[in-house]
Amino acid sequence: xxxxxxxxxxxxxxxxxxxxxxxxxxxxxxxxxxxxxxxxxxxxxxxxxxxxxxxxxxxxxxxxxxxxxxxxxxxxxxxxxxxxxxxxxxxxxxxxxxxxxxxxxxxxxxxxxxxxxxxxxxxxxxxxxxxxxxxxxxxxxxxxxxxxxxxxxxxxxxxxxxxxxxxxxxxxxxxxxxxxxxxxxxxxxxxxxxxxxxxxxxxxxxxxxxxxxxxxxxxxxxxxxxxxxxxxxxxxxxxxxxxxxxxxxxxxxxxxxxxxxxxxxxxxxxxxxxxxxxxxxxxxxxxxxxxxxxxxxxxxxxxxxxxxxxxxxxxxxxxxxxxxxxxxxxxxxxxxxxxxxxxxxxxxxxxxxxxxxxxxxxxxxxxxxxxxxxxxxxxxxxxxxxxxxxxxxxxxxxxxxxxxxxxxxxxxxxxxxxx
Length: 419
Known about the structure:
The protein has helices at 17-28, 69-77, 107-121, 143-149, 153-164, 176-182, 185-192, 204-213, 266-272, 337-350, 372-376, 379-384, 397-400, 404-418, and strands spanning 10-13, 34-37, 49-52, 55-58, 89-92, 98-99, 217-219, 224-229, 235-239, 243-246, 248-251, 276-288, 294-296, 309-313, 324-330, 354-369, 392-394. It has 419 residues and is α/β, with parallel strands linked by helices. The protein has 3 domains: 4-46 and 203-275 and 370-418, FAD/NAD(P)-binding domain, CATH 3.50.50.60; 49-67 and 80-88 and 196-200 and 276-369, Alpha-Beta Plaits (2-Layer Sandwich), CATH 3.30.70; 103-188, Orthogonal Bundle (Guanine Nucleotide Dissociation Inhibitor, domain 1), CATH 1.10.405. The strands form 4 sheets. The chain has a 7-stranded mixed β-sheet, covered by helices on one side. It has a 5-stranded parallel β-sheet with strand order 7-2-1-11-17, with helices on one face. Strands 8-9-10 form a 3-stranded antiparallel β-sheet, with no helix packed on it. The longest helix has 15 residues, at 107-121.
């Protein structure tokens, strides 16, 4: 590694998990001339932890899985190894009655399908690598078609429960590559079994905060307005506070907004216009007397039931001074805010909830992705050609999947590949 004065100056745009992790992995390689730019007044992005009556709750990123090795390594590096409570989960119908995850009559078929699943998924080991380059054609089709082709009609419903609930869209529409990137066999087992998931007692944002604060040159409320590649190399980055000149830039902000800050040829603008999102809401309600679990409502995961409460999450086992529950809903653009709330509160009461009171709501433009047609046409191969052009590199949710683990893994991959 060169001496500090001869090192490249690297600007990182965005201080969510991808930006903070990129800074972390650059620091581990000996880079010190790092500047982290964040347009908000705090770091974290969708890692939106809040405090209520002395305890933390998550309004964005929710949990990590036992298989999340990058996340766990980062937690160890930053002194955040404490485990949160063991999450108890159940399945309920819309009237509040507890049900089995799948009908009892489907259990024999599920056992057969699930037994064959590891050998089937072994074909797609490339999905365990960061990114989506070189996808086989069958993973570019919608997940429900992939399941039909492989005789997984019952298992598809189990995937749906753990995929759609967290705002990643409908398995009838989302390409199989995304579903299987998130729900590998090991990850699926972690959801099915009552395992000790990562729940960050001090809040997931605390991990991002500690990572970001190791960067000496951190700027908050510093929104990027323009990036200008320089003829002699490097990039001029203009913000609403001041201007910077970097030798290299890592851009981790939303890719669909890139053309607002960087002049792009029409073919690149056309590529970025293919990006789609899911509109996802997380509500925090103060509620008494709900069932003593975190719960799924499988009937509400159907695309026709957008706007209905899909799940609720009790973060802490002790209920003393701890009545806050988070609610997950796919936004229904045809309903008003009042209608959305009315439906949620009616469901909470049917589940046995009393003294229902809204505490807050977060609305997310969630899960950047492309459809099956764009995947089949080589979207990610075209996107990868942007890497390093004009000394600008890219990371973030679109590149590997919007979980903490996948964002961290891709940022490490980017640093190892180019720096």
